[in-house]
UniProtKB/TrEMBL annotation, chains A, B, C, D:
The keyword DNA-binding applies. One of its GO terms (biological process) is negative regulation of DNA-templated transcription. This is Transcriptional regulator, TetR family domain protein. It comes from Acaryochloris marina (strain MBIC 11017). Residues 9-69 form the HTH tetR-type domain. GO terms for molecular function: DNA-binding transcription factor activity; transcription cis-regulatory region binding. SUPFAM superfamilies: Homeodomain-like, Tetracyclin repressor-like, C-terminal domain.
Length: 208, 208, 208, 208
DNA sequence: AATGAATGAGCCTTCATTCAT
DNA sequence: AATGAATGAAGGCTCATTCAT
């Protein structure tokens, strides 16, 4: 409410923006606090007015990102009446705003790859929970679809859902890492949707 | 006249084994050369008799691994007469010996996440080529299958193949990172094979 | 708003003074950065705020010294109308402030004696040029003296001048290394001047 | 007498020769024991059968050199009847075999410049004594010449002699360091002899 | 609140020396 | 006697963090 508060929050954001940019360019370990200060156009000391340690920076960055993710997932839960539609929407959601995320992919890797850092930031734990959220969404939709006779009863919802989560992460990660042409990637997504969709509904109506 | 006889190759392997173990436990940056020396039960100086720098260790580790991979891929090329069988074999190959690989997954992440380290080791470049090898294998098999009328002509080989590569990497990575129960993962692989297989042959014989 | 105010130049000088003192006491290789930091009463890290490497220290020390030398030589060029007077003044200049220089003589030796160090510092190159400057001064004065009939035409200016340079360096160096009594050394200088002076004018007016 | 002894002595010499060569090329600090072993074509361990430490190598090298010097000086003492001739011979002696010495000049510098090393090797002490031997020789000859009326009584033998020693060292050192053309250097030596000779006999027969 | 000078713990690497063979 | 593999103490340098101004 007071101007001070606004200032502080804006400055925090400015620092985070600078940190994201420099981390993305150099990676976490290769980034010095001095680099971030320079990018944010402030003194090194000032950074420590807003973040107690270097580790707080990725902690905040990913905290915000995962928070945003979580919101989007919970929105999904309600938007679609038809389970198969909902699943397709879930797939699409995973590939939304991927370009923004591509930026920090190497940073995610570096943190997940460093036990100490990861423990302190809790990234892999948060990440796991985020995936689990998606997983639960898919499980629920598949089971609903099976109950409604719209999805083959032969497939195991927990197994298929978890497989789907891995698949989506794999495709998203490869897009982020290898910088596919958008058209080429879109075609891949289309192929995936097609394959998943036909598989879900396959043998519905088969006599058993 | 009789200098101390040492099996240098065995010692190199012992060091690499120690390095893998410590890297896996702590990550690359958090691992000190002293840690590796202690694990390998030798002096710090001895490490440098076998590897010029700390970076040489992951370089050797991944050099050996990717070499082994490459051999296995090239073997695949010939073993299967039926393209669809070959594709299934390719999928299975990607999930072979995954437990051994799981060990170093975080190390891969950390290196891919660090520009300097990656450049010096050349891991992402090697990794990309390895994936490209698999991609080419799938493309070739799909096209062969289409030529033989065993695979639907509707799908684009380059797009589907590349999607499959991303999918396989995603599933393998999630297995390595989240330590699924083997049965649970096997069921996922089964579901994937099932889905891919039906998609490849779908609408063969459809009148169009 | 008001950052810590520091006279960076003064601090640089303080570090150089400490470095000279410790180098003089122990020699370059035996001096640890920690020794210099202790002598300068600051942390090791602070040294690196002012000098990028250990080698920068002798580089700066000799840079400043040779700069001062060069100025003094160029002043000599004009101050004396009579060439013989100028030569005597040149000789005296070489023995001025010798006590200050005595301090770093062993350091000069150590650097000149170490190929790598010398290359990086460029000391022997600078030193050579400095001697060449003195040499040219003597050559010019001798030739002027010969043109004016004040110096024997029999002697070769380039040869005599270069000999004189070696002689002066030899005497200065011995003074610095063996710490002669000032009176004893002054008497040597006097003898040299006497000898050189009589030799320069010898056989002027001889009929030939 | 026994072949073993001869073998050992030959090997010691081989090691010293290798050491001189490598020290000359790289300087003392930059030379590793492994370099010397390689040059001498033997194992590192073997070096330590002949020399207890790295420092023993320059200690032996200079021990032998200075021993050879001392012999030559003492020979001078008797060879010349005329004091002025003897002094000229002394000057020439200082410039004999200079090319051989040029080889190790940087090594001498490096050792003289390092207090610890010098103390352990005792080089500067030995060097000082060697110079003092030459000094005493010149003093004796000058005084003899003065007694015989062949050298001006005006000059102080101790002062002139010591000056001469510094001069000779200066010229020899510059030859070794700056690699003058032999002719150019010979002409300098000639000029020096000429100057010294005329100065010694100057004003003999002056009325006083 | 903002700054950046100062700090020192910590790490990779070197290399003289040892010693088992 | 000869070897060279093994060792570990030591040093230059980095950089996250502190704190005086």
């Amino acid at each position: 409410m007071s101007p001070k508060i606004v200032d502080r929050e804006a400055k925090r954001q400015a620092i985070l923006a600078a940190a994201i940019a420099v981390f993305a360019e150099k990676g976490y370990h290769a980034t010095k606090m001095a680099d971030i200060a320079r990018k944010a156009e402030m003194g090194k000391g000032t950074l420590y007015e807003y973040f107690r340690t270097k580790e707080e920076l990725p902690k905040s960055i990913f905290g915000l990102m995962l928070e945003a993710f979580d919101q989007e997932i919970s929105q999904l839960e309600q938007a679609h009446a038809d389970p198969v539609d909902a699943i397709m929407a879930g797939i699409q959601l995973c590939f939304q705003d991927l370009d923004e995320f591509a930026y920090v992919t190497p940073l995610v890797f570096e943190i997940l790859g460093n036990k100490d850092l990861d423990r302190s930031i809790g990234l892999s734990e948060d990440f796991k929970q985020w995936l689990e959220g998606i997983n639960q969404f898919f499980i629920a939709q598949i089971q609903a679809g099976q109950a409604q006779g719209k999805i083959s009863s032969k497939l195991s919802a927990p197994i298929f859902a978890r497989m789907l989560v891995s698949i989506l992460d794999g495709m998203a990660t490869h897009y982020c890492m290898f910088h596919f042409q958008p058209d080429f990637f879109m075609a891949q997504v289309k192929a995936l949707e097609d394959m998943v969709c036909s598989y879900l509904v396959s043998s519905i109506g088969d006599k058993q």
